[in-house]
Amino acid sequence: MGVLSEFFFFVLSLFSPVSVLGFVLFLLVVYFISSNPAENEPPGPRPLPVFGNLLQLNLRSLHTSLWELSKKYGSVLTVWMGPNKWVILVGYKTVKEALVTHAEVFGERASTALMRETSNGHGLIWSNGERWRDLRRFAITNLRDFGMGKKACEDKITEECGHLVDVLQNYNGKAFDTMQTLNYSVSNIICSLVYGSRFQYQDPQFTTMVDLVNKRIQLASTPPMLLFNMFPSLGRWIKNRQKLKKIFDFLKDQNRSLFKGLRETLNPQMCRGFVDAFMVKQKAVQESGVTDSVYNEENLLHSVLSLFAAGTETTSTTLRWGLLLMAKYPHIQDRVREEIFRVIGSRQVQTEDRRDMPFTDAVIHETQRFGNIAPMALPHKTSQDITFQGHFIKKGTQVWPLLTSVLYDESEWEKPHSFYPDHFLDKDGKFRKRDAFMPFSAGRRICLGEGLARMELFIFFVTLMQRFRFTAPPGVSEEELDLTPSNGLTLSPRPHQLCAVSLA
Known about the structure:
Blueprint: H1 2-12, H2 17-33, H3 62-73, E1 76-81, E2 84-90, H4 92-101, E3 108-109, H5 113-118, H6 123-126, H7 129-145, H8 151-169, E4 175-176, H9 178-194, H10 204-220, H11 223-230, H12 239-264, H13 274-287, H14 297-328, H15 330-343, H16 358-371, E5 380-381, E6 386-388, E7 391-393, E8 398-402, H17 404-407, H18 450-467, E9 468-471, E10 485-486, E11 492-493, E12 498-502
Parallel strand pairs: 2-8
Antiparallel strand pairs: 1-2, 3-5, 4-12, 5-8, 6-7, 9-12, 10-11
């Protein structure tokens, strides 16, 4: 309510008292004479004109508010975010039915005011139709060619683990913030696939780009930016919008500079990464005389920005949760380490070791489930009218799958609100898959980097557990380590420090 109060006072300050009084009376009249929605539309709380259901929502923890509303209105409900109608999907069965069973209908991407302003439908994430299909197909094919999910990529991750271990050893067991260190290490993997090479951790161009990507994600999910997405006309008064624009312009300029260098040294017979492959394809299309092609500079730029951000923030945040949880629950850390040394000893871990390490695998999966870093999938929209679970949803309706309600679904998980690795173990201690495990979403818009993320998480996590014991900093007990997330577009651990005590 604090955020909305600030917003209302801000709006009221723009008008005279007489105008405000007249406007309030108008809203009250419209509210009381407005008709109820059609019986077969998804139910939801009655909205106020203009402001919708904002008074019933906590914008600082939107996913929590929406889940609470679903307990009254059901697993398919309507919420009005200002003048914008959202349909919310809640629970494993509902989300799966929409995204998998009706993948074509729910597979379009809805855009927000911020994304229309910055990407305008370009790139891998915010495009639709043939543009999206061509770009996604091209990205998957070429990222695999450059090693994604293969032994070549495993070698890149192993090499990066070596650099990360060196950095952690330099702390000599003293407390440090895990955020930047893990961000730089993880980011280098996607950089090697996209640009064709890794960066030094001291490279100011690289570190600035990584830090700004995280800053951009934090700002994009603040209440003022949610309000901008609802009321774009207020954008000139929202400071965070201006900050985001500066960050986005800087990232675009930095990437254009990188593209220039890569283009000048391009060898079509020996592509180094995704950017090289895109440029080769771009040139071939231009030489064929095609003028309206998806292989243009805007799609290259926005695709790379999306890959860079997605390949950095989500995996590094999951690893941060993993290390924090190991420090919080040392008995689980001990079991992980016992399995590691029993199965692989001190040699470098390989992806194929996963099948012989069920408990470690279960801990990583439970970290992803419990960490719940993407509580709301990016917005979808319906490609046609559909009657879904008895409710009519019109073509073009914005739909939000509530992934937190899948990963914490009480009908699917024995202890949904606890960190419980046994969720992924059968009675014999063998790893078991769970259908309601959807941290990468599902259906047509499932994260294309899922395979890469799974490989990264396993190799990074095992390597770190093999080389270090992670503990709370001096003066802080295990019980005092806070597992309350920082709310936002992604749920990350709150700022904290850990100690990495070398086992060598």
